[in-house]
Amino acid sequence: MDMHRRNVLRGAGAAGAIVAAAAAGLVKPGVAFAAPPNKAAAEAKSTADAMKALGVSGAAETKDIVIKAPDIAENGAVVPIEIESKIPNTESIAVFVDKNPFPYVGTFDVSKGGVPFVALRVKVGESSPVRVVAMAGGKPYTTAKEVKVTIGGCGG
Amino acid sequence: MNRREFLEVLAIASAAGLALDSRTALAQGAADALYTVPKFGNVSLLHFTDCHAQLLPIYFREPSVNIGVGEARGKPPHLVGEHLLKWFKIRPGTREAHAFTYLDFTKAAETYGKVGGFAHLATLVKRLRAERPGALLLDSGDTWQGSGISLWTRGADMIEAQKALGVDVMTGHWEFTYGAERVQQAVKNELGAMEFVAHNVKTQDFNDPVFKGYTLKNVNGVPVAVVGQAFPYTPIANPRHFVPDWTFGIQEDDLQKLVNEARAKGAQVVVLLSHNGMDVDLKLASRVTGVDAILGGHTHDGVPQPTLVGNAGGRTLVTNAGSNGKFLAVLDLDVKGGKVADFRYRLLPVFSNLLPADPAVDAVVKKIRAPHEAKLGEKLATTQGLLYRRGNFNGTFDQLILDALMAVKGAEIAFSPGFRWGTSILPGQAITREHVLDQTATTYSYSTLSEISGADIKLILEDVCDNLFNPDPYLQQGGDMVRVGGLDYTCAPNAKMGDRIRDMRLHGKPIEAAKKYKVAGWAPVAEGASGEPVWDVVETYLKDRKTIPVLEPKQPKLVGVEGNPGLSPA
Question: What is the pTM for the complete model shown?
Answer without folding.
Answer: 0.92
